Amino acid sequence: MERNDPLKFDPARVKTPCFVVDTDCLRHNLSILKGVKDRTGCKILLALKCFSMYRVFPLIAGTLDGICASSPDEARLGREEFKKEVHAFAAAYSDADMAEIVTLSDHIVFNSFGQWQRFKDVAASSGRSISCGIRVNPEHSEGAVPIYDPCSPGSRLGVRLADFKGKDLSGISGLHFHTLCEQNSDALERTVDAFEASFGPYLSDLTWINFGGGHHITRNDYDIDRLCRVVDRIKRRYDVEVYLEPGEAVALNAGVLVATVLDLTENDMPIAILDTSAATHMPDVIEMPYRPFIIGSGAKGEKPYSYRLGGLSCLAGDIIGEYSFDRPLAVGDRLVFTDMAIYSMVKTNTFNGVRLPTIMLYEPAEDRLETVRTFGYEDFKTRLS
Asked: How far apart are CA 345 and CA 51, in angstroms?
């Protein structure tokens, strides 16, 4: 749901904290992605690092071609639950990782020629037809936040042209790059231009190119026509299969996090303590940082009543942000954070023994809320020794 869209269900109906994923929003996003596939013939993968709610994999698999994984566990989840193509990439694989990855993956992308040389015989002798590729660094930055920029100086991700030249590409079927983060297709076009200028001479001997993720294809202002032109150009010029692997675009605006006000205090400003936590339930708030949107809220001072919203953990910096509301908050009020299906759900943790939010699915046509998973003491205990 977009920021100004009304919530389709009464938040009082759910026990908080709770992630709620709207199936109609997923279908809307998938219809847009299907349009891109139909227009270009490209293949689109779900990036599990962003959204791994396997309860809805059958819905997503009806449109997308597979998943991309960065660990044996993600690859196994994709193989068992998505049941289509499995693509793997990691900054490095251990012997144990590779022994499992080759039993699960259709494509394996290596982050260095050293890793490729170390494991190419393992892939070749796996008894499965595995297509192997190299991740490259186009040395073209589009990211505004350095922590999410794989082309920043000193990056550990991808092979630069200077380290690529002269290498034996025997057994390599494709190249992969990933440079974007929540960006439009103009950023992709500039990246592809830089990639082509550096690595274009090698493409005629390959069968596929993976444009990575970070494509906000389902955002309202995304230029889909430009995306299709870029994909068509590369497919036509080099006769290769083109893969996109968005995560956010698949579940963009499809989920909310519902929380309850537990307490109201004062320390230089009004403070509301919630039954959710930035540290445990939405760590990107601290890591990035960013300020999630709450339905009906404004910036500090924009509306009559302003509060600092804090989490329930003991971390002093467990602060979600400062918000304003039309009326004073009260203990028991429900607050709804938008766009919480992406990354927040996969990054939750049990620091302080704070329990993970319940996961629910909402079917608007039936006005039905389905509890998919609840969490308790055993989920905390079994992570420890």
From this structure: 7
Are residues 360 and 370 in contact, defined by beta-carbon separation less than 8 angstroms? yes
CB half-sphere exposure, 143, CA atoms < 13 A: 18
Are the CB atoms for 135 and 109 separated by under 8 Å?
A: yes
Amino acid letter at 156?
Answer: R
Residue 306 three-state SS: strand
39-43-44 Cα angle (round to 5): 105
- Classify residue 62 by its DSSP letter: T
- Residue 174 has φ and ψ, to the nearest 5°, of -160, 170
Phi-psi region of 234 (alpha: psi -120 to 50; beta: other; left: phi over 0): alpha
Give the DSSP per-residue string, 153-222: TT--SSB-HHHHTT---TTEEEEE----SSB-HHHHHHHHHHHHHHHGGGGGG-SEEE--S-B-TTSTT-
Residue range 100-143, pLDDT digits in tens = 999 999 999 999 999 999 999 999 999 999 999 999 999 999 87
What is the 8-class DSSP label of residue 355? P
Rounded CA-CA distance 21/339 in Å is 9
Quick: pLDDT tens for 300-320. 999 999 999 999 999 999 999
Residue 36 three-state SS? helix
The pTM assigned to this predicted structure is 0.95
Residues in CB range of 121: below 8 A, 6 or more apart: none
User: Is the bond into 150 cis (omega within 30 degrees of 0)?
Assistant: no
CA–CA separation, 217 and 36 (whole Å): 9
Residue 245 neighbours by CB distance under 10 Å:
29
Element (H, E) at 122: helix 113-124
Mean pLDDT of 202-221: 96
